[in-house]
């Protein structure tokens, strides 16, 4: 059983050498009286939160922090080989929390959903039909409360979550602009993902001026994925009674000291609602989300860009690539295709 384990707690930017591949034995049998499920992992999801779990910390209870020499945990798509749990049987496909290894015992009491629709790529359950999809849906519609005609700005816009927020904004009848870190990503946003405008934030010496150019009347919803300098530039450009769903702050995850945000007083004058959220609190809406998104996928009205690497041994490179923007779209690792 090949696995990816953490070598040691991570300081600064994560490196491939912070993880290692080890081979171990696994008994492909569910022990008597054990209510877990033995799965073969097919697709693993690379998620920015995994970096946050690579340090010793105690303020997030929802997640299992990594410990050295143990396999990473994360979202994945898996096939049930054997089940000690009454709700699961051999051959079922599931998505949810698993481990970075070929075979795992998973606990259905953790996040675990049975996959019912297989006319779409299975890997989508690490992205558009899985955790990032739910994140975009809950963050944009529930926290962002969008209205037709509003102006929406999305950072890390071509990524797993951002590309969906932009498309959901267009479906709602909003004007949407995305920022991303390369020309290739900007072209993707404008030509494939239907954003009205997009820009490369790395080539904008003055982010405030760029935002004023794209939003002369200001921003109604800023979907926050990156934090730091981007947030600081956005705040003065927000409109009265605008909203900021705070999904993530990837620019801060590797810093020893978070960057100061100086423009927070705009929250007061503009009556801005800035609200953090965690997708785990919204999984009760998962079936409603599927009803919404599946027809759009089937009709080609919502598309999804994935960046797929083959082989568990290439997982560490793919994971650390999130922090240099190497991934174009949702970063997926294929462990096995069936
Ligand atoms: P992505 O697929 O967007 O991958 C990460 C991207 O972030 C990179 O490709 C890169 O794109 C960008 N990035 C990396 N470093 C920086 C930086 N220093 N400054 C600006 N951009 C940077 O990831 P996801 O869509 O999976 O996640 C997006 C955000 O949503 C993250 O902050 C994540 O933590 C958060 N999240 C929160 C959840 C919740 O429940 N609240 C659930 C899921 C995700 P580029 O080339 O454009 O710079």
From TrEMBL:
<dbReference type="Pfam" id="PF00107">
    <property type="entry name" value="ADH_zinc_N"/>
</dbReference>
<feature type="domain" description="Alcohol dehydrogenase-like C-terminal">
    <location>
        <begin position="160"/>
        <end position="293"/>
    </location>
</feature>
<dbReference type="InterPro" id="IPR013149">
    <property type="entry name" value="ADH-like_C"/>
</dbReference>
<feature type="domain" description="Oxidoreductase N-terminal">
    <location>
        <begin position="2"/>
        <end position="110"/>
    </location>
</feature>
<protein>
    <submittedName>
        <fullName>2-alkenal reductase (NADP(+)-dependent)</fullName>
    </submittedName>
</protein>
<dbReference type="InterPro" id="IPR041694">
    <property type="entry name" value="ADH_N_2"/>
</dbReference>
<dbReference type="InterPro" id="IPR036291">
    <property type="entry name" value="NAD(P)-bd_dom_sf"/>
</dbReference>
<dbReference type="Pfam" id="PF16884">
    <property type="entry name" value="ADH_N_2"/>
</dbReference>
<keyword id="KW-0560">Oxidoreductase</keyword>
<dbReference type="InterPro" id="IPR011032">
    <property type="entry name" value="GroES-like_sf"/>
</dbReference>
<dbReference type="GO" id="GO:0032440">
    <property type="term" value="F:2-alkenal reductase [NAD(P)H] activity"/>
</dbReference>
<dbReference type="InterPro" id="IPR045010">
    <property type="entry name" value="MDR_fam"/>
</dbReference>
